[in-house]
Amino acid sequence: EKPKLVTATGRVTQNGAPVTAGSVWFHPAEGSGYTGEKPSGQLQLDGTFAAKTFPYGDGLPPGTYKVTLSPDLAGRIGKPNYGTAAKTPWTVTVSDTGLVDHALTVK
Fold it and tell me: Is the pTM of this model over 0.90?
């Protein structure tokens, strides 16, 4: 059964510059209710992303997520904690109206 999907877009930056050549992954937090494939978004050249949920399409189910970079990207920029759900500092709550232009900053 297809879950409800809402728009989730944003931008990843480090030191004011876009983070590219990888993806962001949304790991459902405990108790989120969604248990399918973790949604993800490919990073564009300007650091922006639009999350998709395979195989259902654009967007992701409302709920709370730990957000990570793909592990290879996190390693390449020297921030391996950002590639692990247990260690990432990023948590987002996606409401029924979605998440639009959400800024994620690598510190």
Answer: yes
